[in-house]
Amino acid sequence: MDLPSYEEFIGKHKGDTAFVCGAGLSFYNIINHPGFERIHDHVVVSVNSSFVAMRDWDKGDPDKRYWISNDALCRWWDYWIDVKAAKANKIVRDSWKKHFKEIPDFYQFHCRPTPEDTINSEDTGLCYCSSVPSAVDLCIQMGCKNIYILGLDHDFDIEGRSHFWQMLNPKDQPQRIDKKLATHQEQKNAFKYNDLAFSALRQFAIERGVSVVNCNIESKVEAFLKKPFEHIIGELR
């Protein structure tokens, strides 16, 4: 079985504003900000476990809602059943191919070659190795003019936590079937590759006339302009 390509979304949101929701610790304060729900007036791309914060996606209009992942291990988490049921456009990497029968209403993408600082705009794949770079690439290709990234930290707190949901009440935290989490070293390795992709995406965005802003001013990712979420949400209509 094959899935349709995400390419049908290219150019769909020309001139729109988009929010890319990563799962870093800084996302915790954002989801508790009184203006958080206003992001849904715009295009929203949820990445992996940030879906936990996507309230009411089990109903409503899926037109501006997207969920994207490179990581087939999302299927091992208890939030996966809610992702499958969500009213959203759901996109996974073609490396999920052996699982396509489970998700006939999803879309797929292939990985575009991404040498450091360079994106071949003739290739209609998406950046990788992680899902936030894929999501930013998706937004650029959909024609979004302003992209705001939430929960992009590349960091740990003093307790060793790296994900916003680790700060939720234990009963509200997602659970993985085998109880395993990526080690700090595995996450740090991913951060290095992500930085290369973000550097390439910065140049790609400039070429397309797109503004990309990281809404965590303390983020370790230096590729994009940084502004606090409260300023951004206050400026948006």
Largest sheet: 8 strands, parallel
Q: State the share of residues found in helices, binned by percent.
A: 10-25%
- Stretches where pLDDT is under 50 for at least 5 consecutive residues are none
Report the portion of residues in β strands: 5-15%
Q: Counting H and I runs of at least 4 residues, what is the number of helices?
A: 5
Q: From the alpha-carbon coordinates, what is the Rg to the nearest angstrom?
A: 16 Å
**pLDDT average, as an integer?**
93
The number of distinct β-strands equals 8
Which shape, going by the Cα principal axes?
globular
CATH class: Alpha Beta
What assembly state would you assign to the polypeptide chains in this entry? single chain
Which CATH architecture?
Answer: Alpha-Beta Complex
Structural class: alpha/beta
What is the CATH topology assignment? Answer: sialyltransferase cstii, chain A
Brief overview:
The protein is of the alpha/beta class and 237 residues long.
Helix and strand topology:
Layout: E1 17-21, H1 26-31, E2 43-47, E3 65-69, H2 80-85, E4 89-93, E5 107-109, H3 131-141, E6 146-150, H4 184-208, E7 211-214, E8 225-226, H5 229-235
Parallel strand pairs: 1-2, 1-6, 2-3, 3-4, 4-5, 6-7, 7-8
Helix pairs in contact: 3-4
